[in-house]
């Protein structure tokens, strides 16, 4: 096959064009937010928030409201609730999140089971289908994704300080608690934007995997964010083409390509790579 | 800042100057555990104060209260003339080494630049002045060569130097340092103390917790003895006072007579219950 046709042929289809744009947007936004998720250890929270969006989606479906709005409200409320629990709770943090996580998802499943007719589009949110995204959804993804990116990039130095050394940042006058809640709210928005592309169950991979891969390779915060975004974009393209030619699930393909990069970085990465560990450490203590 | 014209009053040694920190009957607790009980102390501007005491004595809690990171359950504080946190841009807080994630992807230069963020304000990126301050601060602590290195690739002593550089880059009036010389070698300790001494001479106030009693006695101006409550506050020489040490550490430290005194741990020596009550010693030489 002609290599140029190999690249251009799928783009003759509108669903592939929309799917590629959506996958690129979602991948990059998730990777940028994921940098903070990885450095703050919020992976489990990301997973919990994406599951908590499910009852929001179901309720929106039942009352005939836009699904995104329902999911976004549920996700942001849960993210902020987790923030409150983490600051005031007496239980271990992962215990509280685990309770919230399972409880909200069960509530969604229960509501789902009350719907009489078979609802494919709601089930689609569990595993995602980026190739099924419509023009209206794509505009929503683009607008919300752009808002998240602009806010994060505008205050990235404050977020960096508050993430690296919360006490030092607070002592210097930064509103660390406010920044944390803002980050959690943005995380909720990011997750809802991403659910249609990769589904509730795999959103956490989009958040964590590119950023974790980048952390294995580079030593600067800005580089980590840029590399994570680049890997996510590359994975979105490769994953969608694999999905097109091999007839694989699109969300799973993207996530698996991201996971492949992680595996490569784990083995070959300069910082923690298994190969570099065999040599004497160059950095010294 | 060491060149002062003759006849000019050095404000920092002026007893009438407003104190940098006033702690007034402050108590603090975590849940039900009381960390500090009715502590009162005053720290003059230009003072170099060592906060000493055993683990769990409330040393870090005292610093966090002054930094405005936690609120007292009772009592009040005045920091640089206002409530804690009101002059945050003029306060540099150095956390304990264990509180920092050393795997974090930041370079030495980026960490020190964080000291400039509060002055820069939201959304504004560092300019030439900020880069000059960062370079000068790294020069001061002898870490200029390491500016591009990842923070986790440094030794424990180098990490403390970098964090002190971050504090210096913030150009603060008040340094709050949680164990700045713990786990560093003797030379690093001497050099870091030289830097703090110079800052105090320039009129900055330094409050540092430490477990190193020799360092507290020899390199600081003043010492505060904490043991949940304030046992005593006075000139740093008091660190060699056997009675105060017994009261602070529950009798596990002995001062041996000799050249400047020597401190040894003694687990057989027990706490003297009769020695109680808070005392203030005033250094009349200043």
Write a structural description:
The complex is a heterodimer of chains A (285) and B (286). With 285 residues, chain A is an all-alpha fold. Chain A has a single domain (3-277), classed as ABC transporter involved in vitamin B12 uptake, BtuC, CATH 1.10.3470. Helices cover 80% and strands 0% of the residues of chain A. Chain A starts with a helix and ends in a 7-residue tail after the last helix. The model of chain A is unreliable at 278-285 (pLDDT under 50). In chain B, strands 5-6-7-3-8-9-12 form a seven-stranded mixed sheet, sandwiched between helices. Chain B has helices at residues 59-67, 108-120, 128-140, 156-169, 186-201, 213-219, 242-249; strands spanning 21-30, 33-43, 48-52, 74-79, 91-94, 174-178, 205-209, 222-227, 229-235, 253-256, 262-265, 279-280. In chain B, 28% of the residues lie in helices and 24% in strands. Chain B has a single domain (11-241), classed as P-loop containing nucleotide triphosphate hydrolases (Rossmann fold). In chain B, strand 1 and strand 2 (33-43) form a beta hairpin. Chain B is built from seven helices and twelve strands. With 286 residues, chain B is α/β, with parallel strands linked by helices. The longest helix of chain B has 16 residues, at 186-201. Chain A binds chain B through residues 39, 90, 154-155, 157-158, 160-161, 163-165, 167-174, 215, 218-221, 223-224, 283-285, and chain B through 31, 64, 67-69, 85, 88-89, 91-95, 99-101, 103-107, 110-111, 114-115, 117-118, 120, 122-123, 125, 149-150, 153, 155, 166, 170, 176.
Major β-sheet of chain A, in short? none
Q: Describe the global form of chain A.
A: globular
- Work out the count of structural domains of chain B: 1
Which CATH top level class of chain A fits?
A: Mainly Alpha
Q: Any idea what the CATH superfamily of chain B is called?
A: P-loop containing nucleotide triphosphate hydrolases
Lay out the secondary structure.
The complex is a heterodimer of chains A (285) and B (286).
Chain A: H1 3-8, H2 14-40, H3 43-63, H4 67-88, H5 93-114, H6 120-127, H7 135-154, H8 156-164, H9 166-171, H10 176-198, H11 203-217, H12 221-246, H13 250-268, H14 274-278
Helix pairs in contact in A: 2-7, 2-10, 2-11, 2-12, 3-4, 3-5, 3-10, 3-11, 4-5, 4-10, 6-10, 7-10, 11-12, 11-13, 12-13
Chain B: E1 21-30, E2 33-43, E3 48-52, H1 59-67, E4 74-79, E5 91-94, H2 108-120, H3 128-140, H4 156-169, E6 174-178, H5 186-201, E7 205-209, H6 213-219, E8 222-227, E9 229-235, H7 242-249, E10 253-256, E11 262-265, E12 279-280
Parallel strand pairs in B: 3-7, 3-8, 5-6, 6-7, 9-12
Antiparallel strand pairs in B: 1-2, 1-4, 8-9, 10-11
């Amino acid at each position: 096959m002609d290599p140029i046709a190999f690249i251009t042929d799928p783009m003759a289809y509108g669903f592939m064009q929309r799917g590629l744009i959506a996958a690129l947007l979602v991948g990059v936004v998730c990777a940028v937010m994921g940098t903070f998720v990885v450095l703050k250890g919020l992976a489990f929270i990301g997973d919990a928030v994406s599951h908590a969006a499910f009852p929001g989606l179901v309720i929106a479906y039942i009352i005939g409201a836009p699904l995104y709005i329902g999911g976004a409200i549920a996700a942001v409320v849960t993210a902020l609730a987790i923030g409150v629990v983490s600051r005031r709770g007496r239980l271990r943090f992962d215990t509280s999140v685990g309770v919230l996580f399972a409880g909200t998802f069960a509530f969604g499943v229960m509501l789902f089971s009350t719907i009489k007719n078979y609802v494919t589009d709601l089930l689609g949110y569990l595993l995602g289908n980026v190739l099924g995204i419509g023009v209206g959804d794509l505009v929503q993804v683009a607008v919300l994704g752009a808002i998240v990116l602009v806010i994060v990039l505008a205050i990235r130095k404050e977020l960096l300080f508050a993430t690296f050394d919360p006490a030092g940042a607070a002592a210097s006058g930064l509103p660390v608690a406010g920044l944390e809640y803002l980050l959690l709210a943005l995380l909720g928005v990011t997750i809802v934007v991403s659910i249609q592309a990769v589904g509730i169950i795999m959103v956490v991979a989009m958040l964590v995997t590119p950023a974790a891969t980048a952390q294995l390779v580079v030593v600067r915060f800005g580089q980590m964010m840029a590399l994570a975004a680049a890997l996510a974009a590359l994975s979105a393209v490769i994953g969608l083409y694999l999905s097109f030619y091999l007839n694989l699930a699109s969300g799973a393909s993207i996530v698996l390509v991201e996971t492949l990069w992680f595996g490569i970085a784990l083995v070959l990465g300069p910082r923690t790579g298994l190969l570099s560990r065999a040599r004497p450490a160059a950095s010294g203590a | 800042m060491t060149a002062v014209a003759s006849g000019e009053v050095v404000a920092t040694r002026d007893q009438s100057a407003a104190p940098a920190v006033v702690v007034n009957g402050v108590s603090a607790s975590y849940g039900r555990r009381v960390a500090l009980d009715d502590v009162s102390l005053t720290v003059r501007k230009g003072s170099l104060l060592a906060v000493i005491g055993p683990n769990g004595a409330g040393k870090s809690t005292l610093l966090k209260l002054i930094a405005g990171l936690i609120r007292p359950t009772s009592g009040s504080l005045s920091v640089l003339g206002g409530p804690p946190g009101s002059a945050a841009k003029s306060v540099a807080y150095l956390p304990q080494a264990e509180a920092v994630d050393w795997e974090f992807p930041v370079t030495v230069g980026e960490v020190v630049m964080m000291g400039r963020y509060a002055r820069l304000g939201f959304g504004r990126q560092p300019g030439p002045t900020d880069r000059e301050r960062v370079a000068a601060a790294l020069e001061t602590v002898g870490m200029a060569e390491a500016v591009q290195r990842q923070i986790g690739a440094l030794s424990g002593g180098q990490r403390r130097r970098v964090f002190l550089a971050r504090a210096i880059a913030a150009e603060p009036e008040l340094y709050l340092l949680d164990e700045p010389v713990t786990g560093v070698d003797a030379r690093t300790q001497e050099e870091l103390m030289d830097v703090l001494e110079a800052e105090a001479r320039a009129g900055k106030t330094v409050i540092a917790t430490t477990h190193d009693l020799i360092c507290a006695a020899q390199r600081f101006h003043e010492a505060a003895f904490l043991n949940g409550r304030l046992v005593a506050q006075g000139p740093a020489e008091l660190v060699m006072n056997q009675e105060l040490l017994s009261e602070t550490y529950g009798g596990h430290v002995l001062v041996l007579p000799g050249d400047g005194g020597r401190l040894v741990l003694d687990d057989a020596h027990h706490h003297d219950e009769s020695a109680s009550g808070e005392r203030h010693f005033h250094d009349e030489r200043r």
